[in-house]
Amino acid sequence: MIIGRDESRCTGCKICQLICALHHFKEHNPKKAALGITGEFPVPGTYKISLCTQCEKCIPVCPTEAISKQGDAIKIDPEKCTYCLICVDECPFNAIFVHRDFEVPFICDLCGECVEMCPTKALYWEQ
Amino acid sequence: MIPGYGGSVLRIDLSDGKVTKEPTPEEMIRDYIGARGFIIYTLYKELTPGIDPLGPEAKFITSTGPLTGLFVPSSGKIQSGGKSPLTGGYGESNSGGHFPEELKMAGYDMLILEGQHDKPCYVVVDDDDVRIEDAKEIWGKGSITTEEILKKNLGEDFQIMTIGPAGENLVKIACITHDFGRQAGRTGLGTILGSKKVKAICIRGTKTIPVHDVDGLIKVGKRMYQQCFTNAAFELWQTYGTAAVTNWANRIGSFPTRNFQSGYFELFTNLSGPRMREEIVVNNKACFACAMCCGKYSHTKTKDYDVYVEGPEYETTAMIGGNCALGNIKDVAYANYLCDEYGIDTISGGSIIGFTIECFEKGIITTKDTGGLELKFGDPKCVFEMIKKIALKEGIGAVLAEGSRHAAKIFGGGSEKFAMQVKGLEQSGYETRRSPAMLLSYMTSDIGAHHRPSWAVTHDLQSGRDHARDKAWKVKELQHTRPLFDTLGVCRLPWIEMQVPVSDYCEAYRMATGIERTEEELITISEKIWNLTRMFWIREFPDFGRADDIPPARIWEDKLKGGPTDGGVLSRETVDALLDDYYKERGWSKDGRPTPEKLKELGLDWVIKDLT
Description:
Chain A is of the alpha+beta class. Helices cover about 20% and strands about 20% of the residues of chain A. In chain A, a hairpin with a 2-residue loop joins strand 4 and strand 5 (about 75). The mean pLDDT of chain A is about 95. The interface between A and B is large, with 32 and 42 residues.
């Protein structure tokens, strides 16, 4: 299972980011979300959703083997991570995130809160 | 520090570049809640009466509330205010987008701009880092173009308010634009920024907003969102936004048409939500944390133009569509784009242009006044041209840039009767001669003829459309409840359209701040704020009162023409009866002034001295 995205339905409301940060960190701070929403304005007036597709390309690039697949989701081991950010640079979907408050990048763990809260079904479960 | 707030007030003196940050006063938090309350309290405390709204003593304030940026439906709202250059009284405008939560996440509840810079500049607030930058490269450019340039230069994650050439030229209906199409449109706040030579305000905030009980807030927030998701009208709002109102407003004869000569536009189906969706809408666009996404992003294209624009939303469709009789949604959208890019309020702009066309058709002004331009209702090219003339103060545009009240004085010929404004602010998109409670709403709104504090058209449909009875209490009630949302820093539409109960907002307020307050207590604070805004006008204009609440004589002298409200008119006696009831409801004098007893009851003893 992955979280699918239909960017044509995204309105840029960022409820997904808000609930993501609340669920994982108990914080009102969409900049601590494990998905990104970027508006493309004034033309063409659409939104890009950056979200892990479980492509696993981050796993081999990590020099300390901190990244692995556990169950359906990618996990980053904070004990092994050296914050080199190679995974962030190499992710083809810009779906690994950092915030100055954290010493480890963060990535979608497929909790599904964003799917539940997305008001336009731009995010959905996909086999 | 009280949770639920950014924590600080950021003050920038543009004259000397001094930046100060002070903790948001706890007393102000407890007594005035936030946003709208903070603005009027601060303006009242800090402004000297009689100052030039475009002088260095004037202040521009933008402020969030305790629920802004939180997990509450449509919490991406901000209030901006100052002494209005258009009306000379209390000026305020509400806007949405993504600037509100960004300001709060940078740690600020209020941003106050004071003084005047000596050359064009823009303000950058990057969390704790605050700086004033040279705006040489962007001065003169359109609002949307400016935002695009600044986002490229600073980063996509900055949220930006801009003004267009109209604000720079001190056109008194200049707006502030954000997020490529969200406006603080009313009362000339963009003009204040222009006078301070501030082209843009750019914010990036990365901090967490502290709340009292995060789990409690998630719980109530989810309940509020579920109320939206399951409401029968949810899909309709997502699909059409405020444009869903256009057909209805015509069916009840309340759609301003040809400068409020009629309440029915014969071509309204061309401007309807479904037609707009079919012809121009490319995407839905939401403010922060909003599930309803009333913003419709459009691409309007003909052989003459090809632009992207947010909207038109209902008010623009009413004031530029119906009021100027443009029967093609593409033309309305293009006019919307021009207003946005030049930086003028579409409501005042559409009203002033409709007024000017009527003056021309009645022979009060001629081509000698218009620089050779033939004005007629229904001609899009004339509307496009007039927008540019106003924004650039070209020819007749210099007169119109001062607002319709001023223009009517210059044009004469009895035109004051149909300059549709109250207190100098042009009336927004509802015809009222068969809607007395809505008329009373416009007459008594705290900024001039605007619908935000009270929208009472449905009350008129239920309680009678041709008399003054049973109106005042409802208008008063709405003027306390609706502005409460502007005080909490959230949008009122989930409450109005999705029936999210006020009690849920009270609970969210408690979870956010830890402050125990009942719904009744919050409404009482809203009443206090309302009375304080009234006192602001009284302090500016010592004779202020009933005469300032009287609408233009068209209301009782001219019958509506055509449509379901054909022949509709309200007598002068009805207008007076509405005010009599209203002042009594409010505990004000017959002259429309708060009494010392009322002010004392509301804890406003400190302004009683300004009554005399």
